[in-house]
Amino acid sequence: MMKKTFKRGVHPLHSQHGGKAPTRNLETREYVSDTVIISMAMNIGAPATPCVKKGDQVLMGQVIGNANGFVSVPVHASVSGEVIAVDKIPYLGNEPVMAVTIKNDFADTWCELKPLGNVEQVDPSLIIPAIRDAGITGMGGASFPTHVKLTFKEGAKCDTILVNGAECETHLTADHRLMLENGRRIVDGLRAAMRATGVEKGIIAIEDNKPDAIQAMKKAAEGRQGVYIQALRTKYPQGGEKQLIEAVTGRQVPAGKLPLDCGVVVLNTGTCAAIADAIIDGKPLISRITTVTGCVRTPSNLKLRIGTIVEDAIGACGGFSQEPGKIFFGGAMTGICIPNIYVPMAKSTNGIVVLNEKEGKSKEESPCIRCGRCVAACPIGLNPYLIKVAADKSDFEAADKLHVNDCMLCGSCAYACPSRRWLTPSFKFAKDKLAAQAKAKGGAK
Amino acid sequence: MMTIVYAVVLLGGLGLIFGAVLSFASKKFHVEVDERVEQVRACVAGANCGACGYPGCDGFAQAVVDGKAPINGCSPAGAKGAREIGKIMGQEAEVSEKLVARVLCQGEKGIAKDRYLYDGYKSCASAAGLAGGPKDCRFACIGLGDCQDKCAFDAITMKNGIAVIDPDKCTSCGACVKACPRSVIKLMPLSQKVIVRCRNSDVARVAKASCMDACIGCGRCKKTCQHDAIVVENGYARILPEKCTGCGECAAVCPCNCITVE
User: Fold this and answer.
1) Strand order, beta sheet including A201-207
2) Alpha carbon distance A359, A79 (integer Å)
3) What is the pTM of this model?
4) Tens digits of per-residue pLDDT, A273-291?
5) pLDDT at A418
6) What's A207's DSSP letter?
7) Choosing among A92, A94, A328, which should be mutated to test the B contact, i.e. which has the most B CBs within 10 A?
8) Is it the case that residue B193 has pLDDT exceeding 90?
9) pLDDT at residue B126 above 70?
10) B129 touches A: beta carbon within 8 Å
């Protein structure tokens, strides 16, 4: 069978196996830290409201933050122990967020769980409420609440659920390890999502740089109704929602539309496993596999409780092996830099990558030579060099006309640029400014 | 010989015909231009800064003559400009006090604590979006020069990590106020000489930990002031310009050096 892929794209860190080699063949280890700081704003949409106070004893899996509205999910305690602070902390965004700090008593006493049983027998109408109550958000990075994704608007037609096992980002092997070690759970989660939405076909898409994962998933999916495995030719950014849809189904999601508009819903492998945990065991989302790699002594895949502080996670990997220059959540292409090592990880933190000072230093940009490599790399088909000119002049209207809002900030253009132009940061700048302008306009009306 | 004569006659004749048509057209299709527009245009600052809200200085001059814009609408031209425009328009200009943009932050390098070293896109707005900005204080001037880029009068310089505005060059157009993602810049009357240069509304413990010169809202200035010209709101002091006499006693007692007297 010919392997499928999307148009354009790049091969970041190709000569170094995408930086994945150090963690690829290591089994996931569980690590539980002494203290966790659980942010209330881990999902896109309204943040949760804390419902515990300082001094409370909480059990593992207990709700500590209530959801606000439909596009919001509850937050659960990831350890059992005592709440030692409910306070605002500076986090990765502009504004400080509410967070609950829990001191771990290492008893791991679960609160009362309500398992629904086998995914093939459970009443389909109970699945989506269970997903919401388990606090499940997209675990690939965007943190969109999963129950919202699976609740279709009237008239929307969906024929396929895609499971994103591409893991095209550099350095990360968390999804890879999950597929090898817990493939059945991913298939269970996919089946639950299929039954809840009445979709007949589920495709698990995996890049061909993970042949062992493809084999493992084929085995796990044996005999399961409507579940298929699709191998993809390795390329970045295949794990982007719209690129994955193009690669697997050949359909293109139009500008400004959602995947559902072309009949597809995309879930991450981690999300699927979390759905299975929520249905079969009744367990909420309180831990996830995170790749900790780069300049640490023993790069590993750790199963971390949500809210583990980066310092502890790095400590669990033997500490820094070199003087750190930059640390970020996620892979090298789309990761977000963190200000210090006392920041807690969230539900969407799939990797903690440490670069040394030399690697972490931003390069000076030089003038555009009009070579067009950015255009050849852009998976969406934009003109990055033109948008950059508009964004640098703060001409956001022109940037909007060049469809900067369709840019997903994958960084392929900046990676391909021989002049090391700061393309992606300027697009983010323009997108933020346009969003602020739109908000101001909406407010004025 | 005759060829030259033909050419001269032909071209000369054509020239005469076109000249006649043009002169006829210029008389027939003459557009009445209000000469006051030109005069008003000469009085405004001419920086096309957009502070008045009209598309450039030409748009403003037209709007003044049409009676749509106030005659003191050009803040860069100031009181002098408003008076001149008033003369042209035959109105008495209501001259408001000259304003000037002030940076309400003293968080220079070494005074405000750094949260991290910013190594990204050179824009305050971008830096502010990354983990609350490179300085520990979330109200501080970031110092990457978004205001400087927008200033049409070259009044802003970046010194030691914060913006410094030259009051002589500032025309109070307000472009910097709009550009600042932290709202650190405020327009104040030029006559106000005593200024609280901080607007950190965090509790005192947090504010002091993030910056040596942060206002902690202790209220000593308020107690010292004999003219009731200081209010302490949202955790920081503010001076009421209409009551302040500029004595500067508050600055002398401030334990955090955040009140300056010019």
Assistant:
1) A227-232, A201-207, A160-165, A264-268
2) 35
3) 0.83
4) 999 999 999 999 999 999 9
5) 94
6) E
7) A94
8) no
9) yes
10) yes
- Chain B residues closer than 8 Å to A429 by CB: 121, 123, 125-126
- pLDDT higher than threshold 80 for residue A141: no
Domains and CATH numbers, chain B: 38-89 (1.10.15.40), 97-191 (3.30.70.20), 192-262 (3.30.70.20)
Closest CA to B199 of B162, B236, B166: B236
pLDDT tens readout for residues B16-37: 999 999 999 999 888 877 888 8
Length of chain B in residues, anyone? Answer: 262
CATH superfamily of A14-26+127-281: NADH-ubiquinone oxidoreductase 51kDa subunit (3.40.50.11540)
Nearest chain B residue to A340, by CA: B116
Arithmetic mean of pLDDT over chain B:
87
CA A147 to chain CA centroid, Å, is 16
Residue B207 phi/psi, 5° resolution?
-60, -45
CB contact under 8 A, A337 and B138: no
Q: Where are the domains of chain A?
A: 14-26+127-281, 31-113+286-360, 373-444
Interchain contact, A425 vs B126, CB within 8 Å = yes
Q: What are the pLDDT digits (tens) for A61-92? A: 999 999 888 889 999 999 999 999 998 888 88
Helices (H) and strands (E) in chain A, counts: 14, 17
Q: Who among B119, B121, B131 is closest to A429 (CB)?
A: B121
Question: Shortest Cα distance from B132 to chain A (angstroms)?
Answer: 4
Using an 8 Å CB-CB cutoff, list chain A residues near B149. Answer: 394
Q: Say whether pLDDT at A311 is over 90.
A: yes
- pLDDT above 80 for B95: no
> Which of A326, A328, A337, A361 should we substitute to test contact with B (largest number of B Cβ atoms within 10 Å)?
A337
- Cβ-nearest to A429 among B116, B125, B132: B125
Name the minimum distance, in Å, from the CA of A55 to any CA of chain B.
Answer: 22
DSSP secondary structure letters along A386-445: HHHHHHHTT-HHHHHHTTGGG-----HHHHH-TT---HHHHHHHHHHHHHHHHHHHHHH-
Predicted local distance difference test score (pLDDT) of residue B83? 84
Contact A425 B132 (CB under 8 A): no
The minimum CA-CA distance between B240 and chain A, rounded to whole Å, is 29
Work out how many CB contacts closer than 8 A connect A with B: 53
Residue A123 has pLDDT above 70, yes or no: yes
B-chain residue closest to A428, CA distance? B126
ipTM surpasses 0.85:
no
Distance from CA of A92 to the nearest CA of B (A): 4
Fold that domain A31-113+286-360 belongs to in CATH:
Ubiquitin-like (UB roll) (3.10.20)
- Using DSSP, state whether A65 is helix, strand or coil: strand
pLDDT, mean of residues B134-161: 89
Average pLDDT for chain A: 89
Candidate from A94, A339, A426 with C-beta closest to B116: A339
* Whole-number pLDDT of residue A443: 63
Nearest CA distance, A116 vs chain B (angstrom) = 40
A90/B131 Cβ within 8 A = yes
pLDDT digit string, tens, across residues A370-409: 999 999 999 999 999 999 999 988 889 999 999 999 999 9
Q: Which residues are registered as beta bridge partners of A230? A: A205
DSSP A296: B
Q: What is the mean pLDDT of residues A110-136?
A: 89
What's the rounded mean pLDDT across residues A241-256?
90
CB distance B130–A432 less than 8 Å? Answer: no
Task: Give the per-residue pLDDT at B62.
Answer: 87
Q: Which helix H or strand E contains A268, and what residues bound it?
A: strand A264-268
First to last CA, chain A: 55
Which residue in B116, B121, B125 is closest to A422 by CB distance?
Answer: B121
